[in-house]
Amino acid sequence: MAAVAPTVPVRRRRRQRESDTVTVGRSKAGTVLANTAGILFAVVMAFPVYWVLNTAFKPSPEILQFDPTLVPHSPTLDNFKSAFNAPYFQQDLLNSIIITLCAVAGAIVIGFLAALAIARFKFYGRKAIILVILGVQMVPLVALLIPLFLMMQGFGLTKSLAGVIIVYIVLILPYTVWTLRGFIYGIPRELDEAALIDGCTRAQVFWRIILPLTGPGLVATSVYGFIQAWNEFIIINTFNDQAQQNLMAWLLQNQTQRGTFWGPLMAGSILTAIPVVIFFLIIQRNIATGLTAGAVKG
Amino acid sequence: MKRKIALAAALATTLLAAACGSDSGSSGTPNANASVDGKGKTLKVWLMVDAQSGWKNVVDQANQRFTQATGAQVQVDYQQWGDHLAKVDATLAGSDVPDVMELGNTEMPKYVFNGAFHELDKSQYDNSANWLTGLSAPCELEGKTYCVPYYAGARVLIYNTDLFSKAGLKPPTTYDEVVAAAKTLKEKNTGSKFSAFYAPGKYVYAGLAWVKGSGGEIAKKDGDKWVGQLNQPASQEGLTKWADLVKNYSVGDKTKDEQDQDPIFAQGQTGMMYGSSWELGAVQEQPKDPNNPESPKVKTKVNGKVAATAMPGIPSFLGGSNLGVTAKAANPELAAQWIKIFTDTQSQEALIAKGALPNATNLLDKAAAVEGNKASAEAAKNSWFVPMAPKWAEVESANVIQEMLTSIATGKATVADATKKADDQINTILNS
Amino acid sequence: MSAVDSRSAPARPTPPGPPAPPAHKRRKRRSSTSGGGTPYWLAVPALVMLIGLLGYPMIRMVVLSFQNMRLRELFQGLTPPWVGLDNYTKVLTDDVFWSVVLRTVVFTAVSVVLTVVLGLAVALLMRRVAPGVRIAMIIAMMFVWAMPQLVAAQIFRWLVDANFGVINYMLTQLGFDFENHSWFADPKQGWVVITALVVWAGIPFIAITLNAGLTQVPKELIEAATVDGASPWQALRNITLPILKQLIVIVTTLSVIWNFGLFTQPWVIRDGKPEAEYQTLATYAYSVAFKNNNYSLGSAISVITVLLLLFVMVFYIRQMFKIGDVD
Q1: Which positions in chain A touch B321 (Cβ < 8 Å)?
Q2: Does the structure show a pLDDT above 70 at C296?
């Protein structure tokens, strides 16, 4: 909310409307060209997604034929039934939901607290903590797989959802802390101080003032965490048995020594992607706002 | 004070005794014939998914018999083949290890050599005198046995009877007849997707079988060291013959392996292919629901038009799996008993009925009687196996043979260069 | 963790340098920032988890790289023998390793440049098109963004399948002879496919982020410049880009870190067994560790990968310090 050199009013919190786009100097031909390009882009981008849908509704013989059909000639729901009834699919779906929600919730709570510390306080070791958080993101996970596995087994946390949740929280944490730190940093200290003067305790300041204002940031980081946890398959495959896998690991099982079961794989993929899409739709308004609040001078 | 010391000593002794007493399996050989009371215990078994999709009834029956005999329950966890060794390694390194583990026969030597399995008493298991060498050799180390053969698979020539009769061809009985048939089929069928002999470029057990067919070897032990033999004239001759088929009679992605063979053959535009015995059934019908092997079968385009015969001139690799009692098993004796039941003649006969090949030569004739299995049962009698080096599995996972074959198939390297490179890699890995 | 990071994370909304005049600092009271023990309590859970869970494995990884751990030691819990810098020497003098590094670097450079440039182009395009078209673009990108990496890799594999793939089919229909064409026989073509996959999957995040950033560009500025005779290109270069600069730097650095650790795509597209020409640093480390059961060598490779990445991170951190973000 800072005053800046240009005298134009701040637009940060207004939702983007048609009048926000530049209208001077735009030719009709240019617009037609742009629209065509835009539609072409949407079609090309969406084509692989369309192909997933297309394949999911085809019966196996139609999938495995030399001349692919652009639209299913004999559409069927068999692949969805196959995926849904496949061994462990429903169990894995439930596992995915539980693991992801817990991991994201955990990461946000812990991350928010740490972000508060870094953004709002100056203390000895602060820079070190920041470096740790940044540095930890660069380590390739595969290198840590076996020591991590052995350690978790020592704690008795393998073959369970809890162990995987803990590891996922740790995976999501650095990015969460860093992003929330940025958001909290953007909230002016004057608000804190005004509240403190008015008699609030520090905890109340955090709970009543900073937390609500960090809303968009929480949403943005939960998107990241959701996708990370939802998509992971290496760790859970190593740690757990068949009954405690997630949907991604289940998808992998469609790739067997005897070829890939494309139909159920595609149908299963759609089923796997639906929760993510729903999640996106719910928060899509906040994505854009939350993403760049304060990112750009203005 | 004296009493306290005495108490402490008693406690310590008890603890020590308990600790030592529970260490029953790691020193001795688990006795499969012992009568163990397994009440309240659960045996943990790791099998590969083939059992789940191919012969689950055999597993269930064995479990039932086992529980009746010992009172213990069985918990079976099915593993996927893809990248499963990473999980196996991590698990074997830990403390919570399954009692029984299935591994491919080419993977076994590595684990046997590194002490992952208990020694077993061979004589306690059915048909052990007649075990197929391709399955039992991986289990033996310095005269001791560390695992039990489970089931086998062999490869045969699968051909389209319709295309053959239209071209006036009879099933080939020599290798030259195979090539001649391919040539005729190619002339008579000019579709752009037609393969007279579908031979994918990354098919390890085909390429190596051709090596053996010309009298070549893969690797030999020279004193203390392993020496790759793929660069030798006989091996090269075999590979050249194989490459000839791939380049001239096979249409398709030269970098693919044999996973897509069946759907391709099922399109009806392939004359011949080299496949495992179960592929004869797989190309003719597929379960409607791939995830449910019990679901009704859907016929493919080539249903009723396919037959199998032994591949003339090319000895088959003997594939298959073995079962072992892990060194860290919590219930080694129960594990040994379970394996005994799961691999005895009764179980093997049930396995044969489902189309797999048994683990012993005396059962092969019974297998030949099963519809469609005659050719593979014959092939199993003349089969070969990979070099019995502890590190052979690493040659497999390092993709040495695959890369050699694809570089030949795509024309990137000559047979001489590709085999030289492969030999060097084999020497490095096997002797490291 | 770069190996499993997806490109789907939103950007870091780092605020610009201290906007307030220095007087503000003078008025700051000690109590509002030093806080006594409070920051430690707040940060403790995160630190405990990070250091507790990752500390031991990371130390183990570094220690392993100086030992020689093979399968036997793994199974029997023996202490592996100490070999000092042997593993590092082996890795650093191995031609295969350097070819993998080169490949990873080239891929990262090409894919990041493509993604950011295309993402920016799409973001600009989004500002220019009719609202209906913009919505169509956003919906398409949403679906792409939501698609898991694993699934995306599988579908690309299927699209370019030599025998059954629709790309070959369509190209053949258009008159080019692509029948049964293998996209992976020639690694150059194979990498085109993999790069296309990564760029395709990465554009939504970049485009939507930059688009949001573009809303911060005051339209009056652009209009004024246009009225003054500036071409759209000049307006872009002199007004829009400088404003977006920080955001572009951020998304570029993130993309570099993610793409450098590329694992899933080449792994899945080559069916779990990438050939030598398809190995990236991450797949190579995994192959060496798990397929050759040479955990020590794999650890050494991972350590070197981290050091290489640190190189990039240093740049990023300095940028952050430069814009006064981290004080």
Answers
A1: none
A2: yes
Q: Look up residue B147 and give its amino acid.
A: C
Which helix (DSSP H) or strand (DSSP E) does residue A104 occupy?
A: helix A89-120
Given a cut of 60, whether residue C39 has pLDDT beyond it is: yes
| Contact yes or no for C287 and B92 at CB 8 A | no
Confidence of residue A178 (pLDDT cuts 50, 70, 90): confident
Q: Look at B262 and A81 and tell me if their CB atoms are within 8 Å.
A: no
A186 vs C319, more confident:
A186
Q: Name the residue facing A241 among B52, B77, B193 (closest C-beta).
A: B77
pLDDT computed for residue A108 by the predictor: 93
A contact chains, 3+ CB pairs < 8 A: B, C
Query: Is there a contact between A260 and B291 if contact means CB atoms under 8 Å apart?
Result: no
Q: What is the pLDDT of residue A24?
A: 60
Other C-beta atoms lying within 10 Å of the C-beta of residue A67: 11
Mean pLDDT to the nearest integer, B250-270 = 88
Predicted confidence (pLDDT) at residue C290 exceeds the cutoff of 50: yes
Chains that touch B (3 or more CB pairs under 8 A): A, C
Q: Token match 């077993």: residue?
A: B120
Q: Do C219 and A20 touch (CB under 8 A)?
A: yes
3-class secondary-structure state, position C144: helix
Flag whether the ipTM exceeds 0.90. no
* Banded model confidence at residue B145, pLDDT cuts 50, 70, 90: very high
Residue type (1 letter), C144 = V
CB contact under 8 A, B291 and A64: no
CB atoms within 10 A of CB C191: 20
Using the Cβ of C74 and the Cβ atoms of chain B, whether some distance falls under 8 Å is answered with yes
Which residue type occupies A100?
T
Q: Where are the domains of chain C?
A: 101-325
Measured over the CA atoms of residue A136, residue A138, residue A139 and residue A140, the dihedral's sign is positive
Region B128-154: mean pLDDT is: 91
- Contact between chains at A113 and C29 (C-beta distance less than 8 A): no
More confident: B24 or C258? C258
Give alpha helix (H) positions in B98-190.
108-113, 133-136, 161-166, 175-188
CA angle C34, A171, C211 (to 5 degrees): 85
Residue of A nearest to B95 (CA): A153
Chain centroid, CA B173 distance in Å: 27
For C89-123, the pLDDT digits (tens) are 989 999 999 999 999 999 999 999 999 999 999 99
Interface of B with A (CB under 8 A): 49-50, 52, 77-78, 80-83, 86-87, 89-90, 93-96, 193, 259-260, 262-263, 266-267, 269, 282, 286, 288-292, 298, 300
CA distance B166 to B188: 9
**Beta bridge pairs of residue B78:** B47
pLDDT at B149: 95
- Give yes or no for C162 touching B (CB within 8 A): yes
Q: Are B429 and B397 in contact (CB under 8 A)?
A: no
Mean pLDDT of B56-66: 94
Q: Which residues of B touch C271 (CB under 8 A)?
A: 257, 259
For domain C101-325, give the CATH superfamily: MetI-like (1.10.3720.10)
Q: Are the Cβ atoms of C1 and A35 closer than 8 angstroms?
A: no
Contacts by A87-93, CB closer than 8 A, 24 or more apart: A87/A242, A87/B52, A87/B291, A88/A242, A88/A243, A88/A245, A88/A250, A89/A247, A89/A250, A89/A268, A91/A243, A92/A245, A92/A246, A92/A247, A92/A249, A92/A250, A93/A247, A93/A271
| Chain B contact present for C173, CB below 8 A | no
**Optimal mutation site among A121, A158, A191, interface C, most CBs of chain C within 10 A:** A121
